[in-house]
Amino acid sequence: MGLVASSLASLPLVLAWGSFWSTLTFGLEAVFIGLLCKNKRSNIVLTVIAYWLFIGMPISWYSISQYEDFLDSHRTTILIKQLANGILYAHLAALLLPLSPVSRFFSLAGKIRARSIKEQSSHLISSLLITLGILFFFYTLNQNFNNFSEKFAQSHIAKHNSLEYQLSLIMEDNQKAIAELKYTLARVWEDKQQRGEVLLDFNSRNPSFKTMVVANKSGDLINSSPPELVQNVLSQNESINIADRDYFNQVIENSHVYVSPGFVGRGFGRDLIVAVSTAVPAANDSTKNLGVVEGSFVLTSEKSLKQAINNMSDSVEAVLLDQNDQVLMSSEKLKLLSLSPFKLVPGVSKFYDHDLVNLVDGNGIKSDEVYYIEESVFHWGWKLITLRNEQVHASVIEKSLILFAFSIVLVVLLSYLFAWLISHSWSYYMQKLIQLIDRGEDFEKELIEFEENDELPEEISKLYQEIKRSRLKITNMNQVLQNTVAERTEKLQLLNTKLNVMARQDALTKLDNRRVFNDSLNELWIECQRELIPLSMLIIDLDYFKKVNDTYGHPIGDQVLIYLGKELSQFKTDGVKCIARLGGEEFSMLIKGIEHKESIELAEKIRSHIAGLSISIGTDKFINVTVSIGVASIDATKFTSSKLYQLADNALYEAKHSGRNAVKHLELD
């Protein structure tokens, strides 16, 4: 059974990795534990620890080294994770196997000797301590990993941003200087001597430019710094033309500042040169360019750049690329040649959720190191790439995991020792107490051992007394609980009934409220549509009700509304399905299945009935009121319920504006 379980457990790993080494290690684990536990009871957790330390981890070390989809720097991490998982799974097995359902499922019932009270208490205490210890260490380890990884990544980003900022300052200073120089040259363009003096003065103030040249619109050099560059050529009646250079072509027809890719200087040695150039505009016409001014500086001689790139940190390297992805400068540890093509390829990613890359040299050979990458592009086209060596990150994690593994093993051993000591001290009395409970004793016998025993542990004594009190409390509580539940159930039913009535009834008149009216209107419309019968609505409005309130007060007005509601209720018939108060002094009736003419007749009866009433508002005090009624009927198969309400409301409007105490009607068929 153990071999079957190990095969099933390792199957997902076999499918994912394409290797059977996991089946081998898990299978040997099943055989090892089975042999040790066959004839005598052995501690499963301790057995698993011994297996992985002396057999499983050495085999796995060799197996992982043959699998290229794992980083070598992660080998120890994987082994420690296997050990931790093995302890966790063995601990779960130790907890579950003694349980009756599990024993029956695996046909172990009767084969596993029942544990004594001492063994059970020791098992429970050690299980609790081991569980808490494992959870604590896993949580702490996870927090440390997350914090460290986040700190590591943030440190990388901070170093990258700092270097990017330094490079931007250096290059933007050169670009700004060139951009300002062009306007000075524009003012003295026609004077060759002044033009040369301006160039020399600028170069002396900006020594980062090794050479500087000024070319006319045709590309011929006309000034230089140092001046010997042009003077030596002119003395031989020759000329130098730069019209084929990018730093000339990119700016001669516009006004922006151009930073070139890296190149080897022509005629000025074999140094790596970067050119910064811009067009010189005409003084009186900025849209017309007279020529180009260009400054060249040797990147390898820029100490500030070299220091910034080489002083990142022990784990972070930097590469500066031009627009053509050629190496301009790089950290010395990377050993990259200037102007060599720079290439990165995806690193191992099958079992990793972050992007890793390998560096490929000019010969197409992939480096052994794996890096995390940060990249940014400058506005003039260069790129800055910083690489963080993954092995440095892995080495820190490895140290934490080794400490974690020793801590877990120590927690397991100490937990068993501590649990044994505790269970030994009080298991006897606990066992006796459990026996009393199992036998169902009424605790009136054998009391001396628990009540007159000075050696009885305080916890056991309290537990014993609490059990005695609890039995009586439980009986009393059950009765109180039953009475309370019955009482609250009755109150809840009454309250629900009251709430249901309140939700559907107008509080003043006890007629249906607006909500019930809306629901009834929709339901009746559907019924009339299905049964092909007419649907009618009466909207009844109390005339001059505001005058009643103003004259007699709102309490009298409320009495009038209540009285009117009672009178309207007398007209409830089989056809009148709903009598509701819509709000204020407005009421409505919904009538199903009678002709429009009958609805008008009903409305007239209501109007005349109300007009003939004298409403008592006090001793020997009476008032008379009238109502205006709007009547509407529709064919439910052709018109909506909303249309019915609209027609009735319009009819009411006509009734009120025709002098009140009137009935008006509208019909759509």
From TrEMBL:
Entry keywords, A to Z: Membrane, Transmembrane, Transmembrane helix
Domain GGDEF intervals: 533-668
Any Pfam family: GGDEF
Domain of life (superkingdom): Bacteria
Catalytic activity, EC: 2.7.7.65
CC annotations in GO: plasma membrane
Name of this protein: diguanylate cyclase
Source organism of the structure: Marinicella litoralis
